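sorry for the late reply, my laptop died twice this morning and i had to redo everyting from scratch. anyway the thing you sent over, i finally got around to it. pasting the sequence first so we're on the same page, its 262 residues, then the predicted structure underneath. double check i copied it right bc i was rushing
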Amino acid sequence: GENMFLDIPGLGKELFINLMETIMGLPSSSVWELRRILDSLENRNMLSLKSLWNEIVCGRINDLVKEALLRRITVLRESGLFRDSDATDLNKVFKETLNKALVINLKGLPKSFRQLIVETVLNKTVRMLENGEIKPLFLFAEEAQSYLDEKAWEDYITRMRHIGLSVVFITNEPDSLMSFVYRQADNCFIFNLVNENDLNYISKMSKIDAESLISLVPTLPIGKCLAFGNITGNIPIMLNIRRENVFGTGETRKVLLAVPRS
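ok and here's the structure:
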């Protein structure tokens, strides 16, 4: 809603329909009507939210279908992600960020809008990878399991090796990740964890013995992590971590409370 916006032509008609159906929960009867209208607008080179809205309002459409379409388009407008002018060219952005990091800041957005953005950008990324338009890339998903349902993540993770999408999950709540994430994971990097439930959950999924994991992880000092997986031959190895000096949005804030003596 600040410097990233999408429009229907840039996203693509099929991805827009998929977004309305899977994320916005548009019923199948309304999806058929949406496709018919979008096909008509595309043939007239008039693909836009405004034109779509006008066609629905003025068209001879079942009232229930009309209401379902207008309600969801209203949500898209209010999300701040979609507009008809000055839209972000995702094709250009992805192609120009080769060997660079592209960060999408979801801070301060309602959960429903976060889900909308994550799903939309992921769908676009996967489509471009499948079409060979961009080279394989890494996706760093920070607590992103909160924004997509399990079925969507399972689809991406199952196919990621075939389409060139390597997902790195980052979380402070290991038990919030789906079990198939651990089964499919090639490598695991763990910083200090003291919660027994978290350690028990990870130990069931890891390829090293639970006793080693539970005894080592709670004692990890700041600046060290435990790594295991394909990268270490499944032998747990302690790594020193450099202090990061790029992103500071997650920096801990401290409060000093001064209590005067009586």
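Strands lie at 137-142, 165-170, 187-190, 224-229, 237-240.
thats about all i looked at so far, will dig more tmrw
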